[in-house]
Amino acid sequence: MPRHYQLESSDGIRYRLPREGQMRTDVVVYASAALLEHIKLDLSLEQAMNVATLPGIVGSSLAMPDIHQGYGFPIGGVAATDFEHGVVSPGGVGFDINCGVRLVRSGLTEQEVRPRLGELVEQVFQDVPCGTGGSGFVAVDQKQLEQVLVLGARWMVENGYGDRRDAEFAEAGGAFDDADPGQVSEKAKKRGRPQLGTLGSGNHFLEIQYVETIHDDQAARALGLEVGQVVVLIHSGSRGLGHQVCTDYLAQMGPAMKKYNITLPDRQLACVPIQSPEGQAYLGAMRAAANFAWANRQGIMHFLRRSFRKVFGAEARLELIYDVCHNIAKHERYEVDGKKRDVLVHRKGATRAYPPGHREIPLAYREVGQPVLIPGSMGTASWVLVGAEGAMRETFGSVCHGAGRLLSRTAAKRGRNAQEVKKKLEEMGILVRSETRDGILEEIPEAYKDVDEVIEVVHSAGLARKVARLRPMGVIKG
Amino acid sequence: MFELLEHTADIGFRARASTLGELFETAAVALESIALETEAIEPRQEYRLEATGEDYESLLVNWLSEVLYWIDGEQLAFHHFRVTALTPAGVSGWGLGERRDPARHRAKLIVKAVTYHQLHVAETPEGWVAEVYLDI
Known about the structure:
- The complex is a heterodimer.
- Chain A is an alpha+beta fold.
- Chain A contains 16 helices and 18 strands.
- In chain A, α4 packs across α11 (277-312) and α10 (239-259) runs antiparallel to α11.
- Chain B has helices spanning 20-35, 56-72; strands at residues 2-6, 11-17, 45-52, 76-87, 90-99, 113-114, 120-124, 127-135.
- In chain B, strands 1, 2, 6, 7 and 8 form a five-stranded antiparallel sheet that branches. Chain B has a three-stranded antiparallel sheet with strand order 3-5-4.
- Chain A binds chain B through residues 42, 68-72, 75, 94-96, 131-134, 187, 190-191, 194, 200-203, 240, 243-244, 246-247, 250-251, 254-255, 266-268, 270, 405-411, 435-438, 478, and chain B through 4, 6-11, 54, 57-58, 61-62, 65, 68-69, 72-75, 100, 102, 106-110, 112-117, 119, 133, 135-136.
């Protein structure tokens, strides 16, 4: 039975759950009436209320329209904490540190790719390792791994795994400053080393798509997008290295919370003061793991370029449009109640969305806003948006990150057969290759909310603007 | 004995056993069987496993995280587990298994981590029961 929530809304997009009990602030949910009914069915609103209890939280505990139940934080949640007096929560970043999305444009059209799609999907499946087979990854020794943790995508570019312009078109230039590899355990390094340049499994994928519709001509031109053009979306993160970093620090949080006298309604929310030695150690390790993730997506793109050249010849060029992270905690500055505040923005399944003119946007896009990449489910659609002013005023420069799950993995598999699902997708013009047995069934389109409805909410709320809708042609899954 | 539990984005399991030590062993088997196809794993070598915690809940999370590290980081596949000592502050034991061979021990799902989400360890009249959710 869904729990009853006291939600208030004046515009049918922003729903407020007033502060109660241990909460230090309100929860604000961005949703349509229909999406809200789905949201009420799992624990996501309760988790957003728990986030509102974090010491030093600034503004509201925010929930995006793709929100669904996570652990500790809901997935699709945003929380900013005061940088001097607030806390950092490893659970507010998640196990997949800097899980994110990278969009690559080709010079090819759908008509040119369609006749050779089978060959292309097979080639990409061969060239891009998913990381379960124990080979094909970007081989680095211990010393090189330490450099990857400091330099992120820049290390990859300097060492022949990319073009010079690639790093420039990633959020934060593809590497955080202040990463501290010394705070990353040997276990995390050992787990991550054979996984650099690998896709992973679960909801991670690589999708060959074409631009179906353009919704903003000026922004599309700036991003180099036109109708019919083939693009590739890469969704992956920091692999075992990031997972182990989060595991290691969560294990240390229990005793540290006692020391700082912090009690919380959910153990997975565990947090420590940002400025404490434990908080600083975690942030140093988190940034190193984030750099690993940027290097990882760069490695995948390198393998992808190789596949395109093999199938379409040496002149086939792939250029990076942008790369965003959607699991991260970042030190940023916002105006809150008329005052500039330094905050740590936790984005757990949420994407940064800076508006036009922001100095952290590459010059080529600065006039139109930061590209925001929203993957949908395989078989439906993905979206390219650009950040808008509303995000700066209301959501600490953040929007949604995907369609949001509706069905559990077990429910998605129930009564379905992988071959039938594959055949149905083929009839829709979508070829799928998956490494793991359950990969296809668990990510069926029916397991996700309607991505178009999610996008409509953030567009109408003025958090981001629609630029292009992308349709899948080929899906490679871990 | 264990059964799978549903979660919107992830997967969990409920393990039951007559003693707490067996519960930890069963939970380790459940974790591994979610990650790997286990039929062909052979008990060739013994690997020591240790974890510490503040209570049985955190101990179980840390024990399973240790098992996951050996599977994903050290590329091992375990045939079975044995707990030799257990207090709320620490658990030690071993896993008997072999190096992972991608051809014989195919991955089913890449398990990212063991979470505290709705974590539950309790003694009931029928024995010990634990509920654990994994991040996939």
